[in-house]
Amino acid sequence: MPLTSATDITARASEFGGGQFDTSYARLPQRFYARLKPTPVHSPRIVKFNYPLAEELGLDATRLASDAGAAFLSGTRVPEWAEPLAMAYAGHQFGNFVPQLGDGRAILLGEIIGRDGQRRDLHLKGAGQTPFSRRGDGRAALGPVLREYIISEAMYALGIPTTRTLAAVTTGEPVFRETTLPGAVLVRVAASHIRIGTFEYFAARDDEEAITILVEYALIRHYPALQGSPNPALALLAAVCDAQAALIARWMQVGFIHGVMNTDNATISGETIDYGPCAFMDTYDPATVFSSIDHHGRYAFGNQPRIAQWNLARFADTLLPLLDTSREKAIALAEETINQFPERFAQYWLSGMRAKLGLTTEQPDDAGLVQALLHLMREQEADYTNTFRLLCAVAEGAQAPAGFEAWVTRWRARLAQESSSSQDAARLMRAHNPAFIPRNHRVEAALNAAVKQGDFAPLETLLAVLSTPFAEKPEYAEYANPPAPHERVRQTFCGT
Ligand code: AMP
Ligand code: MG
Q: How much distance in Å is there from the Cα of 136 to the middle of ligand 1?
């Protein structure tokens, strides 16, 4: 039976609790994936388990965190409800089209319908080779797995749409990169794993039927209100443009740099996916790049909105045959939609930046006020996160930071036009300006302790601090500090 509504369910409770399961992607035509089981691992051990997420999914966390759970979460024992598969997709990597990528080291078990009725993919990253592996070993190393755990959960706590991590499981097997590293599997939970690259895979094969099916499926899963639109492909394109505009605006508001904004890493759901060499910016500079493989700064902090729009244009390309029977008209419709991206992005961005500055009303020069602050931050080499957090106190009367006096005078004049009190402004600001972000040097330190010394205490502390990023935590004040010069991380690696 195909999926006709987001609440269809075929399988029921499993041995791991009251969660409900389904495998709707496996019911799509065979050319959408390769069916295969994960490769069992030697000695699966859960090193980090996400109890709150298990709860939300309606799973029995205690049973799942047991040895039997480790066998399941590592892909060593496939539960009876699952129909494991590797998804087919293509993608533009650093601007170059690769007609076949696909899950080379990840396996989709199926979908869980959580307590909230939401359907989410349950996906094992590092689960062994697949027909899409090319020369890769199909495995993941513990460091990058824990890195994705930390950053995805930090993003979630910041309120940013993201895939999540249910568990990190070590395999008891080594993986061979530049050195020998402990192997691990990441259990990823996502609204879905449909990417712009999934559409590109079929477009490259002129498979219009597949794209029609995928449009319908994506609408059911992510934009059910748009089902039955007169032009479903156009409705989907507009919805994805909007979701991506909202998402990238959120990234820009917290200083997040994805690092590999390839079209295979751009979701149709609007969730952030694929935490490789991503990083949070300390000192404000739009040219910031951390990724060791981004030699030309294509995915620099300040380029992200432009790249998102470029990716969406690649998405629109795949939909052209569906948008209109006349190619000319199809292109016009696609362009009209894509050209709205900068405006949509600017609206989302400015509304978030207003909140960061304690503003609830709109004034024509608000964008100018924000730009003036950013300009100053760049000039002063100010820490992005801490400048905004300091301004929360300034809103309540604290002194302006050195160098920011004139700007603060201008901002105070703007705040005076608000009807709310300075306490209200500060409260709003503290809910939009995190005190804690996953700073690179803290992340690296936690990963080093876990991977090299088997000491997970720093990781646990870091995760706890990041789980409530807006709350003042004087006892963890050092986690808010930018790196000292000798602590600065200059490069991050995808570690695949
Ligand atoms: P990523 O850099 O994780 O977005 O992956 C890009 C592509 O490379 C995807 O098709 C992955 O499945 C594939 N890939 C990455 N690492 C491996 C690996 N260790 N073994 C097999 N395929 C991989
Ligand atoms: Mg990827």
A: 7
